[in-house]
Write a structure and sequence with these properties.
3-stranded antiparallel β-sheet; alpha+beta; 6-stranded antiparallel β-sheet; about 130 residues
Length: about 130
Amino acid sequence: MIKYTEDHEWLSIEGGGAATAGAIVTVGITTHAQDALGDVVFVDLPEVGKSFAQKEVAGVVESVKAAADVYMPVSGVITEVNEALRADPSLANSDPLGAGWFFKARLVDATQFDALMDETSYTRFSDNA
């Protein structure tokens, strides 16, 4: 299951399991976000082991048009970053919901995940953004 934020990040539970404390979530930017940014040329990824609160800035994505913060969609601890994305930032454009993921984190509060938008709600939201 994929969830979405109002800041245009997506996240999913690794392995498709349930949202429980301790579950690993994968985070990236949405297709809508990468469309708005244009060609991504640089990403600043968080440090593995660092803790972030929900909505705290966890990284930055820069494009030929602008720079944008990447917010932590749920409180958690970074467990892995996408080194392939660091080496080839264009993955955020070519495959934002796949190979262009930004980082993985250990979920602290499952209710934060559950409260995020599903695909239908996010599509409605982004169509009006």
